[in-house]
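Reading a protein record of the kind used here takes only a little practice. Think of the row as the fold of the chain written in a discrete alphabet. A record is reproduced here so that you can trace the correspondence yourselves:
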Amino acid sequence: MIQPKKLPETGELVMVRVSKIMPYGAYCTLIEYNADAYLPISEIASGWIKNIHEFIREGQKDVAKVIFVDTEKNAIDISFKKATNAEKKNKIDEYNSEKRAEGMFTKALASAKMESRKDEMIGKISKVESTYADLINDIYNNKDPLSGIEEKEFKQTLYDLVFKSIKPKKYTVSYTVELTTLDTRSGVKLIKEALGAVEQTGVEVLYLGAPHYRLLSEDTSYPKAEGRIKEAQTILNKYSKRISYSMKSNKGE
């Protein structure tokens, strides 16, 4: 978050560091907030815990779920066991993404020699974006979230940094196709013609050994990569009266 709330909300997933272990629980620091929280021993793990030190250690970083917040007393209780493995993984990915995005923001300030104006710039950017990750994603997707920012050098530096640093994720869709024909005179020519037409769609054709071929489609969009494979299948369908074919997805291999 560009400007974190004072306290988290009940049900929120938070990054924590175990700071002090007690006989019946532990005090933890909320890494994303200027606050502490209490982890009851009953919320560390399922089942009976005889020795708390067998389950947690001081300095340990983990993901917890907020189960109680008293805004008047600034008291927060958290739970390790109520955060599922999937929730923990997603939270860690989100946290790491936010830290990388914040690093780009800080680097852009330094490059523009504006470190002394960091708080001022945070105030301006927080009016249009709630997280650094959202800011970077919107820049990358050409939404120009800083169109109203007057500091042109900082803005251009940040935009340049984003496009140099982020490599778009690519998705690969792979199928194995078997092509056979009973046409002894022109069958081989037909197969070459069909595969040539497939390649015109942007699908890469790899020879695995007759009669097997691999079709590869790569794109920054999975639907587009899959769509080219479907185009290839449509082309093969046009040759199906003289060429028999079967396709099998290589997903998971």
Q: What stands out?
A: Helices lie at 85-111, 118-125, 132-140, 152-165, 187-199, 222-238. Residues 86-165 form one domain. The chain has three domains: 13-82, 86-165, 171-249. The longest helix spans residues 85-111.
